[in-house]
């Protein structure tokens, strides 16, 4: 990546309108008003692009572009987006007339006098910008979402100006490539490979893509449909173990979507590339999906959660071909619509391939904890947000659109009924096929299928942040007991979230229970019972449909264990954990302390067999252990906790995937000498555990843990592990993070300083792994000094990094801190920067939330 300074002086351009002149400032980025004007006058866009990738990594990529479009009004200059250093622009010709090679606040200005109504041709000679080409010595891949196409080539970089692309790639002869369209011609001449592609389908700029490099290719036909996969995996056994099911899942996803939508696969092909250290799980480029390699190539004995995650990821990206690619949001404030449809549909689509899985439970554990993790914070954001400029579109992404929105959509489907909802989806897709649409467009379609005022319903669910708190009151009277459940809006705005869910009441004095359907909105829900029900335990949201902070009875899990379904156990675990994280609950009657809750989790682990529930419990256990316990408390609970985990790993489970799940948690939490020595012996391959098979990735992760926890052996462990790594991409990653595993503080400090240089943050997943090491809970005192400079880098990271990087940078920086001092550093930073970017402020408040809660809980429990 290369950085450049914006022009110091705002350049004002004169736009002519009939005989009058109006002055409009051209902003950096893609401003909403500019985008709306361009959409109103530009159509029939076609890009013909050629990229010449040199053998020498240090040389620039030469590129040529021929852009054609229809223009309805040529009275104004038209900005063409191009965010590169000025010296990257070598020549511009508009309709045969040469223009100065000038960039104005990230734009080439197509002069009105050179434009004409109707057909226009723009020719550009330039060096490709590499910010979003993700260029390595042996491969490169484009990643243009949300507004990064303009960092590589000149374009109208907005989702509602769809275009056709004609691509030519000139590459080293041993490189392979994939793009949106099929290949029309490929030839090798003079040690160069030239690949020409068909004209693409009509797509938005963020969906244009190509991957090129030293990749192996595998093509496979499934039920008459042929897919091609690019990969760089060196472990042939891993490739053979995974490939058939990967191809099967892509085909199964297409078949399901064709049936559900009533629309055949809408594009020319579907291929995919598996990329090492890819920034996301996947990206839905039309006909050329990109995936993080280790999300699809699973190690031996993968857990049920990993298998489901892979299937869900593939289903999600394939669903985007209809939801996002065929019908695209008009502006990135509705980016959540494509993500909610993809996640919501993926939850349905994986069912046929995993008939043995409790899919209601899977939906619960995949969506609710992550959604609550944002919605409980002071920085909670609504699902639909205002977006004045696409250069902030990356901050639209997060758990709210990926996890809360599917919960909302499931409530909406329940409200309409599955058939009416599906019919509405089909109308939406057919009406806006190959076009752009907004959320209100969909609501208008669905509103015809129900008596409920969906616009009012949508307003609280979609346009406002947060979740309700459900307050339970029990009153005894002459005729018995009345239990009332009402919603409280903690923001004080008096909102209520229309929803329905089930709850169960368990009588504590006699073996009796009640199961009730709650319809909750403005009105308080009441249930009247006889006096024998004055003592009962509550299981709220027993069917996993409701959303909010529910009251809990902590002893219900143990007292009713044998009678609870898997879904009910999952709901109760989530309810209890959310209640545990409320500092105001500390000291209240019936509320568990973190150490008491840890004991309950251990009790569950030795009894539970369901992998999804085991994974949920282990995730909570790690969070409580590292965040909500003091160092002394952790030392006190560690011996028995580690014994319990090893007992589960070694004695209770024969399934290798469950064993590996427990082993991962034991490796994460172990701090006693006995178990660190045991883990060291396993890493050194001096000790093995029956049916526990560790991959190269497992050994790398174990080495990283041990280097931090056994500092006297850190240099030996890192050096030895470096020599054991076979995969070259994995070795490069380990070489990058190795300084963060050092026992020497100065080495770690020097590494952190290197992150201030943008070029050292290029491979973002490596950076995030390194930050996790620097801020390991056992290093809190040493790493707290990194917090303030990390916050100071955040705006630059937002401008130069990909969409998830700012949030993940913050999470890795703040997520393992739990001190008042850390919270104060963040608070002081925000006070000192009162005009700080609003979107980034929200992300900071989201990421620091656990530290805030943990510091208050630790303070209160210390006083008890």
From TrEMBL:
Domain Aminopeptidase N-like N-terminal: 66-207
CDD domains reported in the protein's UniProt record: M1_APN
GO biological process, one term: peptide catabolic process
Pfam families assigned: Peptidase_M1, Peptidase_M1_N
Entry cofactors: Zn(2+)
Enzyme kind, highest EC tier: hydrolase
Reaction(s) the record says it catalyses: Release of an N-terminal amino acid, Xaa-|-Yaa- from a peptide, amide or arylamide. Xaa is preferably Ala, but may be most amino acids including Pro (slow action). When a terminal hydrophobic residue is followed by a prolyl residue, the two may be released as an intact Xaa-Pro dipeptide
Molecular-function GO terms, alphabetical: alanyl aminopeptidase activity; metalloaminopeptidase activity; peptide binding; zinc ion binding
Cited InterPro entries: Aminopeptidase_N-like_N, Aminopeptidase_N-like_N_sf, Peptidase_M1, Peptidase_M1_aminopeptidases, Peptidase_M1_dom, Peptidase_M4/M1_CTD_sf
GO cellular component, one term: membrane
Entry's EC annotation: 3.4.11.2
UniProt KW Protein transport keyword: no
Protein's name in the database: Aminopeptidase N
């Amino acid at each position: 990546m290369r950085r450049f300074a914006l022009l110091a002086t705002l350049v004002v351009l004169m736009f002519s309108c009939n005989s009058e002149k109006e002055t409009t400032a051209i902003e950096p980025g893609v401003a909403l008003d500019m985008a709306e004007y361009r959409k109103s006058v530009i159509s029939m866009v076609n890009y013909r692009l050629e990229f010449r990738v040199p053998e020498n990594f240090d040389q620039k990529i030469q590129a040529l572009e021929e852009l054609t479009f229809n223009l309805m009004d040529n009275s104004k200059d038209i900005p063409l987006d191009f965010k590169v250093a000025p010296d990257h622009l070598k020549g511009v010709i508009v309709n045969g007339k040469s223009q100065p090679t000038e960039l104005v606040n990230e734009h080439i200005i197509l002069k009105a006098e050179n434009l004409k109504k109707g057909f226009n041709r723009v020719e550009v000679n330039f060096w490709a910008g590499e910010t979003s080409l993700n260029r390595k010595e042996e491969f490169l891949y484009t990643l243009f979402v949300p507004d990064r196409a303009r960092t590589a080539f000149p374009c109208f970089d907005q989702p509602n100006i769809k275009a056709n692309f004609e691509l030519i790639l000139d590459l080293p002869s041993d490189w392979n490539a994939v793009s949106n369209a099929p290949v029309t011609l490929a030839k090798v001449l003079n040690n160069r490979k030239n690949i020409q592609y068909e004209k693409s389908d009509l797509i938005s700029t963020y969906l244009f893509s190509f991957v090129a490099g030293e990749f192996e290719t595998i093509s496979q036909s499934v039920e008459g449909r042929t897919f091609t996969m690019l990969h760089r995996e060196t472990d042939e056994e891993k490739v053979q173990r995974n490939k058939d099911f990967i191809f099967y899942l892509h085909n199964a996803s297409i078949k399901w979507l064709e049936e559900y939508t009533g629309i055949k696969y809408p594009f020319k092909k579907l291929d995919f590339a598996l990329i090492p250290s890819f920034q996301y799980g996947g990206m839905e480029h039309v006909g050329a999906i990109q995936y993080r390699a280790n999300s699809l190539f699973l190690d031996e004995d993968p857990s049920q959660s990993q298998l489901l995650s892979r299937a869900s990821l593939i289903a999600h990206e394939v669903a985007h071909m209809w939801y996002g690619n065929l019908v695209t949001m008009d502006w990135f404030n509705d980016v959540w619509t494509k993500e909610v449809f993809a996640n919501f549909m993926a939850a349905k689509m994986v069912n046929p391939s995993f008939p043995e899985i409790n899919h209601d439970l899977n939906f619960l554990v995949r969506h609710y904890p992550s959604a609550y993790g944002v919605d409980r914070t002071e920085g909670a954001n609504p699902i639909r947000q205002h977006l004045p400029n696409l250069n902030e579109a990356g901050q639209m992404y997060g758990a709210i659109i990926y996890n809360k929105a599917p919960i909302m959509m499931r409530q909406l489907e329940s409200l309409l009924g599955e058939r009416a909802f599906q019919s509405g989806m089909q109308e939406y897709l057919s009406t806006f096929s190959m076009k752009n649409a907004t959320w209100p467009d969909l609501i208008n379609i669905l509103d015809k299928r129900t008596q409920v005022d969906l616009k009012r319903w949508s307003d609280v669910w979609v346009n406002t942040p947060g979740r309700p708190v459900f307050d339970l009151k029990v009153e005894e009277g002459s005729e018995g007991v009345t239990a009332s459940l009402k919603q409280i809006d903690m923001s004080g705005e008096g909102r209520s979230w229309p929803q329905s869910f089930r709850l169960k009441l368990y009588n504590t004095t006699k073996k009796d229970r009640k199961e009730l359907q709650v319809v909750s909105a403005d009105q308080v829900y009441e249930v009247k019972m006889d006096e024998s029900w004055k003592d009962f335990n509550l299981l709220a949201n027993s069917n996993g449909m409701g959303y909010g902070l529910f009251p809990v009875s902590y002893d219900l899990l143990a007292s009713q264990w044998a009678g609870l379904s898997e879904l009910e156990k999952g709901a109760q675990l989530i309810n209890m954990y959310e209640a545990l994280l409320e500092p105001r609950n500390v000291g209240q009657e019936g509320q568990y302390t973190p150490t008491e809750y840890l004991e309950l989790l251990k009790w569950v682990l030795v009894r539970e067999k369901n992998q999804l529930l085991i994974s949920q419990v282990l995730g909570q256990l790690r969070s409580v252990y590292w965040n909500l316990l003091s160092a002394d408390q952790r030392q006190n609970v560690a011996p028995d906790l580690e014994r319990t985990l090893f007992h589960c790993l070694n004695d209770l489970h024969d399934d290798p995937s469950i064993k590996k799940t427990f082993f991962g948690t034991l490796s994460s939490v172990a701090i006693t000498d006995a178990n660190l020595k045991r883990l060291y012996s396993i890493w050194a391959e001096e000790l093995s555990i029956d049916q526990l098979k560790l991959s190269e990735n497992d050994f790398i992760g174990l080495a990283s843990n041990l280097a931090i926890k056994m500092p006297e052996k850190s240099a030996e462990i890192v050096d030895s592990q470096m020599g054991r790594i076979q995969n070259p991409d994995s070795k490069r990653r380990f070489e990058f993070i190795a300084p963060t595993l050092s026992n020497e503080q100065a080495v770690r400090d020097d590494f952190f300083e290197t992150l201030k240089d943008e070029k050292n943050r290029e491979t973002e997943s490596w950076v995030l792994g390194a930050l996790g090491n620097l801020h390991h809970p056992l290093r809190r005192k040493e790493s707290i000094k990194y917090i303030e400079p990390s916050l100071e880098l955040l705006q630059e990271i937002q401008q130069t990094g990909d969409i998830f990087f700012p949030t993940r940078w913050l999470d890795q920086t703040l997520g393992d801190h739990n001190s008042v001092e850390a919270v104060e550093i963040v608070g002081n930073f925000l006070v000192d920067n009162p005009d700080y970017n609003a979107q980034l402020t929200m992300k900071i408040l989201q990421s620091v939330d656990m530290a805030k809660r943990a510091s208050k809980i630790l303070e209160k429990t210390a006083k008890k």
